[in-house]
Amino acid sequence: MVKNTTGGGNAKKQGRKFQNNNKSTVLRKSEGSNELYAIVDKIFGNGISVFTCLGQIIWCRVPGKFKGRNKRNNFFEVGSWVLVGIYEWEKEEEPKSCELMCIYDRNEIEELMITPGADVKRLIAKTNEKHAEYSEGGHNHDQPEGFVFTEHVVDKKTMFADVSGNEAVVSFANDEEINIDDL
User: Fold this and answer.
1) Strand partners, 47
2) Do the beta carbons of residue 114 and residue 77 sit within 8 Å?
3) Residue 74 near residue 66, CB atoms below 8 Å
């Protein structure tokens, strides 16, 4: 058998190959009228929908530099602040699509808020609105979604099964009765 003289398969070098952080320490700011600050509104499979500082909702393409190996350093979710670039061929009044250019973390967001000349008032209001929704319970009271939890305690034995004769009848909260034998 051959003696190992080199000390392994260089696994340490291979493990650190893509570990560098691509984030720069300089805050990336809007450099023109085609670059807007925005908040991620919805995430789709092929892009995101963003709410811009102009009050518009625009579809945004996510380029490859924010995917794959670089996703670890460029993670975004609903409510994240981003910088988007409007395509030059779009109409200036109402753009329909844009491209993601930068994702901001919490410290950079605070720095953007105090930066003079950055028009982020609508984004701050939208962020505060989102936080208020989550603190109130996270759902609209007009349209119930999913489970509705109440303080009302019901005895499980009397709620679910009433045995009368040979039939078992199940009653629900909205006073519907279903005969189990009919199922």
Assistant:
1) 61
2) no
3) yes
CA-based nearest residue to 27, from 100, 118, 94: 118
Q: Which CATH architecture has domain 32-136?
A: Beta Barrel (2.40)
CA distance 94 to 59: 12
Domain ranges of the chain: 32-136
Query: Over the stretch 22-63, which tens digit does the pLDDT of each residue have?
Result: 566 788 888 888 899 999 999 998 899 999 988 889 999 999
Token couple for 29: 């700011």
Q: How many whole angstroms separate alpha carbon 177 and alpha carbon 172?
A: 7
Q: What are phi and psi of 121, to 5 degrees?
A: -65, -45
Identify the CA nearest to 59 among candidates 70, 45, 73. 45
As a three-state string, the secondary structure of 54-121 is CCCEEEEECCHHHCHHHHHCCCCCCCCEEEEEECCCCCCCCCCEEEEEEECCHHHHHHHHHCCCCCCH
| pTM exceeds cut of 0.90 | no
